[in-house]
Automatic annotation (TrEMBL):
Keyword line: Membrane, Transmembrane, Transmembrane helix
Listed transmembrane segments: 224-251, 258-281, 312-330, 350-370, 379-396
Protein name according to UniProt: Hydrogenase/urease accessory protein HupE
Sequence ranges of Low complexity compositional bias: 201-211
Amino acid sequence: MASLFVYVKGGTSLSRTRNAFRYPIFLAALLALLLLPNQQVADAHAYSAAYTTIQFTKSSVDMTYTLDGLSVIELLGGDTSNDLTLEPEQFNIMKDSFLELIRNQIVLNVNDKPQSWTHVESLELLPNSSPQKVELKVQYAPVAASQVVSLTDQLYSGSSDKSTNYVDLVTIEYGSHKANSALSGKYREWSMQMSDKDYSSLADSSSNADSQETDSSKASGSGWYSFFVLGINHILSGYDHLLFLFSLLIARQKFKQYAAMITAFTIAHSITLTLTVLGVISVPSHIVEPLIALSICFVAIDNMIRKQVSGRWILTFLFGLVHGMGFADILQEMDIPRTELAADLISFNLGIETVQLTLVAAALPLLYWLHSWKFSRRVVIAGSSIAFMLGGIWLIDRL
Protein backbone atom coordinates (compact mmCIF):
# COMPACT_ATOMS: atom_id res chain seq x y z
CA MET A 1 0.00 0.00 0.00
CA ALA A 2 2.85 2.32 0.86
CA SER A 3 4.46 1.72 -2.52
CA LEU A 4 1.08 2.17 -4.23
CA PHE A 5 0.56 5.40 -2.32
CA VAL A 6 3.96 6.66 -3.41
CA TYR A 7 3.19 5.67 -7.00
CA VAL A 8 -0.15 7.45 -7.01
CA LYS A 9 1.35 10.49 -5.35
CA GLY A 10 4.20 10.51 -7.82
CA GLY A 11 1.75 10.04 -10.68
CA THR A 12 -0.28 12.98 -9.50
CA SER A 13 2.83 15.10 -9.28
CA LEU A 14 3.87 14.08 -12.78
CA SER A 15 0.39 14.85 -14.09
CA ARG A 16 0.44 18.27 -12.50
CA THR A 17 3.86 18.95 -13.99
CA ARG A 18 2.63 17.99 -17.44
CA ASN A 19 -0.45 20.15 -17.06
CA ALA A 20 1.71 23.05 -15.97
CA PHE A 21 3.46 22.85 -19.32
CA ARG A 22 0.39 22.04 -21.41
CA TYR A 23 -1.60 25.06 -20.29
CA PRO A 24 0.87 27.77 -21.32
CA ILE A 25 1.77 25.96 -24.52
CA PHE A 26 -1.94 25.75 -25.38
CA LEU A 27 -2.28 29.49 -24.79
CA ALA A 28 0.77 30.21 -26.91
CA ALA A 29 -0.47 28.01 -29.74
CA LEU A 30 -3.89 29.68 -29.61
CA LEU A 31 -2.26 33.10 -29.76
CA ALA A 32 -0.14 32.01 -32.71
CA LEU A 33 -3.21 30.81 -34.60
CA LEU A 34 -4.89 34.16 -34.01
CA LEU A 35 -1.86 36.06 -35.26
CA LEU A 36 -0.83 33.95 -38.23
CA PRO A 37 -3.72 34.92 -40.54
CA ASN A 38 -2.61 38.54 -40.35
CA GLN A 39 1.15 38.96 -40.34
CA GLN A 40 0.80 42.71 -39.96
CA VAL A 41 -0.60 42.18 -36.47
CA ALA A 42 2.56 40.28 -35.57
CA ASP A 43 4.81 42.86 -37.19
CA ALA A 44 7.28 43.90 -34.52
CA HIS A 45 8.26 47.15 -36.22
CA ALA A 46 5.03 49.11 -36.39
CA TYR A 47 6.99 52.26 -37.13
CA SER A 48 6.11 54.13 -40.30
CA ALA A 49 9.18 56.08 -41.37
CA ALA A 50 9.30 59.05 -43.73
CA TYR A 51 12.33 61.09 -44.76
CA THR A 52 11.86 64.69 -45.87
CA THR A 53 14.57 66.92 -47.29
CA ILE A 54 13.82 70.60 -47.89
CA GLN A 55 16.36 72.71 -49.76
CA PHE A 56 15.99 76.49 -49.89
CA THR A 57 17.43 78.47 -52.80
CA LYS A 58 16.70 81.95 -54.13
CA SER A 59 14.76 80.49 -57.05
CA SER A 60 12.70 77.76 -55.34
CA VAL A 61 12.06 75.54 -52.35
CA ASP A 62 12.70 71.90 -53.28
CA MET A 63 11.19 69.09 -51.21
CA THR A 64 11.92 65.38 -51.42
CA TYR A 65 9.55 63.18 -49.43
CA THR A 66 10.20 59.45 -49.05
CA LEU A 67 7.76 57.03 -47.37
CA ASP A 68 8.10 53.31 -46.76
CA GLY A 69 5.95 51.07 -48.95
CA LEU A 70 4.12 49.39 -46.06
CA SER A 71 2.84 52.77 -44.91
CA VAL A 72 1.61 53.55 -48.42
CA ILE A 73 -0.32 50.27 -48.47
CA GLU A 74 -1.65 50.95 -44.97
CA LEU A 75 -2.89 54.40 -45.97
CA LEU A 76 -4.12 53.81 -49.51
CA GLY A 77 -4.31 50.06 -50.13
CA GLY A 78 -3.34 49.00 -53.63
CA ASP A 79 -1.72 45.72 -52.61
CA THR A 80 -4.10 43.53 -54.60
CA SER A 81 -1.75 40.54 -54.37
CA ASN A 82 -1.73 40.72 -50.54
CA ASP A 83 2.04 40.21 -50.30
CA LEU A 84 2.73 43.53 -48.48
CA THR A 85 4.60 44.94 -51.49
CA LEU A 86 3.62 47.21 -54.35
CA GLU A 87 4.24 46.22 -57.94
CA PRO A 88 4.92 49.06 -60.44
CA GLU A 89 1.55 48.43 -62.09
CA GLN A 90 -0.23 48.65 -58.75
CA PHE A 91 1.60 51.85 -57.84
CA ASN A 92 0.77 53.52 -61.16
CA ILE A 93 -2.93 53.09 -60.44
CA MET A 94 -2.66 54.84 -57.07
CA LYS A 95 -0.29 57.70 -58.01
CA ASP A 96 -3.00 60.35 -58.07
CA SER A 97 -4.29 59.24 -54.67
CA PHE A 98 -0.77 59.40 -53.22
CA LEU A 99 -0.22 62.91 -54.60
CA GLU A 100 -3.51 64.09 -53.13
CA LEU A 101 -2.66 62.53 -49.75
CA ILE A 102 0.75 64.19 -49.49
CA ARG A 103 -0.53 67.52 -50.83
CA ASN A 104 -3.07 67.67 -48.00
CA GLN A 105 -1.04 66.13 -45.17
CA ILE A 106 2.51 67.46 -45.65
CA VAL A 107 2.08 71.23 -45.60
CA LEU A 108 4.72 73.92 -46.06
CA ASN A 109 3.66 77.26 -44.56
CA VAL A 110 5.14 80.71 -45.09
CA ASN A 111 4.00 83.25 -42.49
CA ASP A 112 1.26 80.77 -41.50
CA LYS A 113 -0.08 80.54 -45.07
CA PRO A 114 -0.10 77.08 -46.73
CA GLN A 115 1.95 76.95 -49.93
CA SER A 116 1.02 75.08 -53.10
CA TRP A 117 3.35 73.03 -55.25
CA THR A 118 4.56 74.88 -58.33
CA HIS A 119 5.95 71.75 -59.95
CA VAL A 120 5.94 67.98 -59.43
CA GLU A 121 9.38 66.83 -60.52
CA SER A 122 8.95 63.10 -60.01
CA LEU A 123 7.01 60.39 -58.19
CA GLU A 124 8.40 56.90 -58.28
CA LEU A 125 8.54 53.54 -56.59
CA LEU A 126 12.24 53.30 -55.81
CA PRO A 127 13.78 50.21 -57.42
CA ASN A 128 15.89 47.84 -55.30
CA SER A 129 15.09 49.66 -52.06
CA SER A 130 14.82 47.54 -48.93
CA PRO A 131 12.39 48.12 -47.36
CA GLN A 132 10.35 49.30 -50.32
CA LYS A 133 10.03 53.10 -50.62
CA VAL A 134 8.07 55.69 -52.56
CA GLU A 135 9.80 58.99 -53.38
CA LEU A 136 8.15 62.29 -54.31
CA LYS A 137 10.03 65.40 -55.47
CA VAL A 138 8.17 68.73 -55.67
CA GLN A 139 8.92 72.44 -55.82
CA TYR A 140 7.44 75.48 -54.09
CA ALA A 141 7.83 79.18 -54.79
CA PRO A 142 10.92 80.73 -53.15
CA VAL A 143 10.73 82.37 -49.74
CA ALA A 144 11.92 85.87 -48.92
CA ALA A 145 14.08 87.21 -46.13
CA SER A 146 12.47 87.62 -42.69
CA GLN A 147 9.65 85.19 -43.52
CA VAL A 148 8.74 82.43 -41.06
CA VAL A 149 8.74 79.01 -42.68
CA SER A 150 7.22 75.89 -41.12
CA LEU A 151 6.56 72.31 -42.12
CA THR A 152 3.56 70.50 -40.66
CA ASP A 153 3.17 66.75 -41.06
CA GLN A 154 -0.37 65.49 -40.41
CA LEU A 155 0.02 62.00 -41.84
CA TYR A 156 -1.71 59.41 -39.62
CA SER A 157 -3.01 62.24 -37.42
CA GLY A 158 -6.58 61.01 -37.86
CA SER A 159 -5.71 57.54 -36.56
CA SER A 160 -5.13 57.70 -32.81
CA ASP A 161 -3.81 54.14 -32.59
CA LYS A 162 -1.12 54.72 -35.20
CA SER A 163 -0.21 58.39 -34.95
CA THR A 164 2.54 57.82 -32.38
CA ASN A 165 4.11 55.11 -34.56
CA TYR A 166 4.84 57.47 -37.44
CA VAL A 167 7.98 59.59 -37.69
CA ASP A 168 9.11 62.07 -40.31
CA LEU A 169 12.87 62.61 -40.17
CA VAL A 170 13.38 66.06 -41.65
CA THR A 171 16.58 67.55 -43.06
CA ILE A 172 16.61 71.27 -43.87
CA GLU A 173 19.31 72.74 -46.13
CA TYR A 174 19.72 76.48 -46.59
CA GLY A 175 22.96 77.96 -47.86
CA SER A 176 25.81 76.44 -45.92
CA HIS A 177 23.53 75.39 -43.08
CA LYS A 178 21.83 72.11 -42.36
CA ALA A 179 19.34 71.29 -39.61
CA ASN A 180 17.48 68.17 -38.56
CA SER A 181 14.26 67.42 -36.77
CA ALA A 182 12.29 64.31 -35.87
CA LEU A 183 8.55 64.92 -36.21
CA SER A 184 6.71 62.27 -34.22
CA GLY A 185 3.90 61.81 -31.73
CA LYS A 186 2.32 65.15 -30.89
CA TYR A 187 5.34 67.07 -32.13
CA ARG A 188 4.61 67.40 -35.84
CA GLU A 189 5.88 70.85 -36.79
CA TRP A 190 9.26 72.29 -37.71
CA SER A 191 9.76 76.04 -38.12
CA MET A 192 12.42 78.69 -38.64
CA GLN A 193 12.72 82.34 -39.57
CA MET A 194 14.71 83.07 -42.71
CA SER A 195 16.93 85.92 -41.54
CA ASP A 196 18.58 88.38 -43.91
CA LYS A 197 21.89 86.64 -43.31
CA ASP A 198 20.39 83.22 -44.01
CA TYR A 199 18.76 84.47 -47.18
CA SER A 200 21.94 86.07 -48.48
CA SER A 201 23.74 82.73 -48.11
CA LEU A 202 21.22 80.86 -50.29
CA ALA A 203 22.37 79.50 -53.63
CA ASP A 204 20.73 80.87 -56.75
CA SER A 205 19.34 77.43 -57.68
CA SER A 206 19.32 73.83 -56.48
CA SER A 207 21.85 72.81 -59.14
CA ASN A 208 24.64 74.76 -57.41
CA ALA A 209 23.34 74.78 -53.84
CA ASP A 210 26.00 74.40 -51.20
CA SER A 211 25.11 72.03 -48.35
CA GLN A 212 28.12 72.19 -46.07
CA GLU A 213 27.54 70.60 -42.67
CA THR A 214 27.67 73.43 -40.16
CA ASP A 215 25.73 74.12 -37.02
CA SER A 216 22.29 75.70 -37.30
CA SER A 217 20.87 76.90 -34.04
CA LYS A 218 18.18 79.11 -35.59
CA ALA A 219 15.89 76.26 -36.59
CA SER A 220 13.35 75.24 -33.98
CA GLY A 221 12.62 71.54 -33.62
CA SER A 222 16.19 70.66 -34.61
CA GLY A 223 17.35 70.42 -31.00
CA TRP A 224 17.84 67.42 -28.79
CA TYR A 225 14.23 67.20 -27.61
CA SER A 226 12.73 65.99 -30.90
CA PHE A 227 15.22 63.10 -30.96
CA PHE A 228 14.54 62.37 -27.28
CA VAL A 229 10.83 62.03 -28.12
CA LEU A 230 11.74 59.93 -31.15
CA GLY A 231 13.68 57.52 -28.92
CA ILE A 232 10.69 57.20 -26.59
CA ASN A 233 8.25 56.52 -29.43
CA HIS A 234 10.67 54.18 -31.18
CA ILE A 235 11.06 51.82 -28.21
CA LEU A 236 7.35 51.95 -27.37
CA SER A 237 6.48 50.76 -30.88
CA GLY A 238 9.38 48.30 -31.08
CA TYR A 239 7.36 45.36 -29.84
CA ASP A 240 10.17 42.87 -30.42
CA HIS A 241 12.53 44.89 -28.20
CA LEU A 242 9.86 45.14 -25.50
CA LEU A 243 9.16 41.41 -25.68
CA PHE A 244 12.89 40.68 -25.35
CA LEU A 245 12.98 42.90 -22.26
CA PHE A 246 9.93 41.09 -20.86
CA SER A 247 11.59 37.71 -21.45
CA LEU A 248 14.72 38.84 -19.64
CA LEU A 249 12.86 40.18 -16.62
CA ILE A 250 10.24 37.51 -15.98
CA ALA A 251 12.72 34.85 -14.86
CA ARG A 252 13.40 34.75 -11.12
CA GLN A 253 16.56 36.69 -10.26
CA LYS A 254 18.15 38.73 -7.50
CA PHE A 255 18.27 42.50 -7.64
CA LYS A 256 21.98 42.58 -8.45
CA GLN A 257 21.32 40.19 -11.35
CA TYR A 258 18.63 42.50 -12.72
CA ALA A 259 20.96 45.49 -12.32
CA ALA A 260 23.86 43.73 -14.08
CA MET A 261 21.58 42.57 -16.89
CA ILE A 262 20.04 46.00 -17.59
CA THR A 263 23.47 47.65 -17.42
CA ALA A 264 24.90 45.13 -19.89
CA PHE A 265 21.99 45.63 -22.29
CA THR A 266 22.29 49.43 -22.10
CA ILE A 267 26.04 49.46 -22.75
CA ALA A 268 25.81 46.91 -25.56
CA HIS A 269 23.02 48.52 -27.55
CA SER A 270 24.55 51.98 -27.06
CA ILE A 271 27.80 50.74 -28.62
CA THR A 272 26.26 49.27 -31.76
CA LEU A 273 23.67 52.05 -32.09
CA THR A 274 26.47 54.62 -32.20
CA LEU A 275 28.78 52.61 -34.47
CA THR A 276 25.97 51.84 -36.91
CA VAL A 277 24.77 55.44 -37.22
CA LEU A 278 28.38 56.60 -37.63
CA GLY A 279 28.83 54.08 -40.43
CA VAL A 280 31.66 52.24 -38.67
CA ILE A 281 29.73 48.97 -38.88
CA SER A 282 27.00 48.00 -41.30
CA VAL A 283 25.00 44.81 -40.91
CA PRO A 284 22.04 44.38 -43.31
CA SER A 285 18.58 44.48 -41.75
CA HIS A 286 17.76 41.06 -43.24
CA ILE A 287 20.39 39.68 -40.85
CA VAL A 288 19.70 41.90 -37.83
CA GLU A 289 15.91 41.48 -37.75
CA PRO A 290 15.89 37.64 -37.68
CA LEU A 291 18.59 37.70 -34.98
CA ILE A 292 16.41 39.98 -32.83
CA ALA A 293 13.53 37.52 -33.15
CA LEU A 294 15.92 34.64 -32.40
CA SER A 295 17.09 36.38 -29.22
CA ILE A 296 13.51 36.35 -27.92
CA CYS A 297 13.14 32.64 -28.63
CA PHE A 298 16.49 31.82 -27.01
CA VAL A 299 15.77 33.68 -23.76
CA ALA A 300 12.22 32.28 -23.62
CA ILE A 301 13.51 28.70 -23.91
CA ASP A 302 16.14 29.42 -21.26
CA ASN A 303 13.38 30.62 -18.94
CA MET A 304 11.42 27.39 -19.43
CA ILE A 305 14.40 25.08 -18.98
CA ARG A 306 16.12 26.70 -16.00
CA LYS A 307 14.36 27.54 -12.76
CA GLN A 308 17.31 29.64 -11.58
CA VAL A 309 19.16 31.70 -14.17
CA SER A 310 22.73 32.87 -13.66
CA GLY A 311 25.29 34.76 -15.71
CA ARG A 312 22.53 36.19 -17.88
CA TRP A 313 24.28 39.55 -18.19
CA ILE A 314 26.76 37.98 -20.64
CA LEU A 315 23.97 36.68 -22.85
CA THR A 316 22.16 40.01 -22.53
CA PHE A 317 25.26 41.91 -23.60
CA LEU A 318 25.69 39.79 -26.74
CA PHE A 319 22.05 40.12 -27.75
CA GLY A 320 22.14 43.81 -26.80
CA LEU A 321 24.73 44.34 -29.53
CA VAL A 322 22.20 43.00 -32.03
CA HIS A 323 19.31 45.07 -30.68
CA GLY A 324 21.43 48.23 -30.90
CA MET A 325 21.73 47.74 -34.65
CA GLY A 326 17.95 47.39 -34.76
CA PHE A 327 17.51 50.66 -32.85
CA ALA A 328 19.76 52.41 -35.39
CA ASP A 329 17.73 51.50 -38.48
CA ILE A 330 15.51 54.56 -38.31
CA LEU A 331 18.45 57.00 -38.14
CA GLN A 332 20.72 55.41 -40.73
CA GLU A 333 19.08 57.02 -43.74
CA MET A 334 18.98 60.47 -42.18
CA ASP A 335 21.78 62.81 -43.21
CA ILE A 336 22.59 64.17 -39.76
CA PRO A 337 25.37 66.81 -39.75
CA ARG A 338 28.48 65.86 -37.80
CA THR A 339 28.04 68.96 -35.65
CA GLU A 340 24.64 67.70 -34.45
CA LEU A 341 25.28 63.96 -34.54
CA ALA A 342 26.54 63.56 -30.97
CA ALA A 343 23.66 65.51 -29.41
CA ASP A 344 21.02 63.78 -31.56
CA LEU A 345 22.42 60.31 -30.85
CA ILE A 346 22.63 60.92 -27.11
CA SER A 347 19.10 62.34 -27.05
CA PHE A 348 17.71 59.41 -29.04
CA ASN A 349 19.43 56.92 -26.75
CA LEU A 350 18.25 58.76 -23.64
CA GLY A 351 14.69 58.47 -24.90
CA ILE A 352 15.11 54.71 -25.25
CA GLU A 353 16.72 54.41 -21.82
CA THR A 354 14.02 56.51 -20.15
CA VAL A 355 11.34 54.08 -21.29
CA GLN A 356 13.37 50.98 -20.45
CA LEU A 357 14.28 52.13 -16.94
CA THR A 358 10.71 53.25 -16.27
CA LEU A 359 9.38 49.84 -17.32
CA VAL A 360 11.98 48.02 -15.22
CA ALA A 361 11.27 50.19 -12.17
CA ALA A 362 7.55 49.48 -12.52
CA ALA A 363 8.08 45.76 -13.14
CA LEU A 364 10.47 44.90 -10.29
CA PRO A 365 7.93 45.21 -7.42
CA LEU A 366 5.46 43.11 -9.41
CA LEU A 367 8.13 40.51 -10.15
CA TYR A 368 9.12 40.22 -6.49
CA TRP A 369 5.46 39.74 -5.61
CA LEU A 370 5.06 37.19 -8.41
CA HIS A 371 8.01 35.10 -7.30
CA SER A 372 6.73 34.97 -3.72
CA TRP A 373 3.66 33.13 -5.06
CA LYS A 374 3.80 29.34 -5.12
CA PHE A 375 2.52 29.22 -8.72
CA SER A 376 5.05 31.71 -10.05
CA ARG A 377 6.89 29.04 -12.02
CA ARG A 378 3.76 28.34 -14.06
CA VAL A 379 3.41 32.04 -14.86
CA VAL A 380 7.04 32.17 -16.01
CA ILE A 381 6.49 29.17 -18.28
CA ALA A 382 3.24 30.60 -19.64
CA GLY A 383 4.74 34.01 -20.36
CA SER A 384 7.88 32.52 -21.87
CA SER A 385 5.85 30.17 -24.06
CA ILE A 386 3.91 33.07 -25.52
CA ALA A 387 7.14 35.02 -26.01
CA PHE A 388 8.68 32.01 -27.77
CA MET A 389 5.70 31.69 -30.11
CA LEU A 390 5.69 35.37 -31.03
CA GLY A 391 9.44 35.37 -31.50
CA GLY A 392 9.09 32.30 -33.70
CA ILE A 393 6.43 33.97 -35.85
CA TRP A 394 8.66 37.01 -36.35
CA LEU A 395 11.68 34.80 -37.06
CA ILE A 396 9.88 32.83 -39.77
CA ASP A 397 8.43 36.02 -41.24
CA ARG A 398 11.87 37.68 -41.44
CA LEU A 399 13.85 34.79 -42.90
